[in-house]
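hey so u asked for the seq, here:
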Amino acid sequence: MRGKENGVEREDKSNELTKSTTQEWTWTEKYPGDAELRAYFDHVEKQLDVKKDIAFSSRVVSAHFDKPTARWTVRTQDGRTARARYLINAIGFAAKRHFPDWPGLDRFKGEIHHSSFWPAEGVDVRGKRVAVVGTGSTGVQIAQETARQGAASVTVFQRTPNLCLPMRQRKLSREEQMERKKEYPEMYKHRMTTFAGFQYDFVEKNTFDDSPEEREKFYEDLWERGGFEFWLATYKDMLFDLDANRQAYDFWAKKTRARISDPEKREILAPLEPPHPWGTKRPSLEQDYYEQLDKPENFVVDVKKNPIVEVKENGILTKDGKLREFDVIALATGFDSVTGGMKNMGLKDVDGVELSEKWKSGTWSYLGMTCNGYCCS
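ran it, structure tokens below
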């Protein structure tokens, strides 16, 4: 791409920068851990020099559009003020962590950690009784890894089963990655044309175009490849036809239930009847989540049937009156998503009314994009 700067034609360097951040880096495994991801971020920063344009550890507490100057005035918690013509809230849909409102949460005498600010040094769970509340992608990871790391017991409090898919983690060699990098330009181009932005896409046929035997073989191939392919490289009608969707769910349930020997846990983690159409909530990837929870020292509590009513000094009390004692509680309870972050940063309209106040009785916007009163021409 080319453009002009001060009337002089210049070449866009984005391709060169993309090459420097990807072609010179190789990974040790298909799904790298946090230490390797941080090392990659450092590599990217050195290549692109982005830190010079970032104010770290800055919490916005007020932002409003000033009519006389036609500028946004943005203030941070540490007392700084910035003024700009445009304000882009690129805060993500999950910016404000959610804490459950159980009575007694502040009285628990053991350790409590929310998944959104897990200690960088990790949590020593060896020999400890651990509660994991929530079964989103992070809850699945915490439960799986905690059980591996020698916890005395892991108890998962589940509202809705996570219909997980096998990750198929494996080591990667530098040689195979360098060979694959030759395909990157075409891969990037192709990903712009796929349903989910991956390098793979739905196949050009419907579920019942295949015989039951052909369908079973197709599902098995996707399952063995792992990752999200069973979700997003499957039949093109899977997400749009309930009968087709049920075929996918039944296959998932068959494969998953075979990994769980405990009949009670099996019904909670992988019920015969789908909790929702398969794939309409993002499945998480796991390595041995079901095998870890199937161990006799670990437990699963269905909080739809038996909700948490209170946190005691030594554990969690459920509606059935049972107190389960813990040393560590991991809150994988997610975020006040989408609007939570916006309502938490002091956004005000041109008349000084906070967005949190305007949305007090319900969230509204025009076409999901704009709200009246937050700028003027």
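The chain has eleven helices and 16 strands. Residues 105-162+292-331 form a domain with the FAD/NAD(P)-binding domain fold (CATH 3.50.50.60).
lmk if thats what u needed
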